[in-house]
Amino acid sequence: MKKNITSYLLIFFVCIAFLLLPYMFTSNGGVLKLPNLVNNPHDRIYFFIYSMLLIFFLFNYYYLIPKIYFSKKQLLYFGIISLFLLFFLWISTHLDHPDRNFLDFNKYPKFHLKRLPPPPNMKKHFDGGPPTQYSHTILVYLIGVVSSLLFAINNRLRNVEKEKMQSELSFLKAQINPHFLFNTLNSIYALAIKKDDKTADAVVQLSELMRYIITNANDDVIALDKELNYIDNFIQLQKTRLGNTVEIKYELDGNVYGKCITPLILISFIENAFKHGVNPNQDSEINIKINIEDEFLTLFVSNNKVDSVQSQSGIGLQNTIERLSHLYPKKHELSIDDSQNKYTVTLKINVGC
């Protein structure tokens, strides 16, 4: 809402500046001479003409440019622009005459308006000036057309960039589901091979995780408590699968309610720790801490570096780093410490709704 109000105010002030543009430089060397709309019919008629120009420029910006210029009909567009320029020059010539100036109220004595008396030194005759006015009209017209084009092209480029970013995010998000499902099914498969009694519980936990992915993963943002519940189910599933082969510590601190976050933006860092920090024959330890303070969430994930079949970071982690740069520009801090014996990730992210 604030952004809309700011845009409307900007348009309003641009319109006012446009109407005052022809009066910015006067023949007597002044910087600004406001139009004398009360006593000068010449000023009234040209203020009317410039108001028509302003309406045309808005029409040009909101209709002609998007419907004709951006439809690859540039020749037709510039033809229309040229015709309108000739029209405004003609109307300037036609109306800048005392007999045709319908805004010269002196011609209508029976509809006499109460006016302030003119200054003593004011000329009694109609003060025109077509040659000078032509240059003003052409200048204002060209400035308006060029400005409209520049604003429209800039706005179009920003929209194209935004659409490109949305496409990239959709592609990255589409990679998450099969990637996560593949890893989780491997976990349950390992339990089934061992004929572990916890296999049924793991299937239930997986169903909860998949329900979340199907229901909420495509949302732009989601309540933080739902995302953290998803993370808790994931950790419990890993505990079920790994048993006592790895020491898993998980801490959550802070108020989770009233906060929002992009779905599946945290899980890859946690998943990466389980993927590369677990080896039954080595000292395996995974430490996960989530702290929420005010509008910021801090995620700390660390794991001992052990021999792992998957020695390189997977698509999930790379995916998440790219999504963070797109979705949280200047709203997150990511630190990765890859030491000799430990891999540590610290992420601070704004979770205010």
From TrEMBL:
It comes from the Bacteria. The chain crosses the membrane at residues 7-25, 45-63, 75-93, 138-157. Keywords: Kinase, Membrane, Transferase, Transmembrane, Transmembrane helix. The keyword Lyase does not apply. One of its GO terms (molecular function) is kinase activity. Pfam families: His_kinase. InterPro entries: Bact_2-comp_sensor_kinase, HATPase_C_sf, Sig_transdc_His_kin_internal. Residues 168-245 form the Signal transduction histidine kinase internal region domain. This is Histidine kinase.
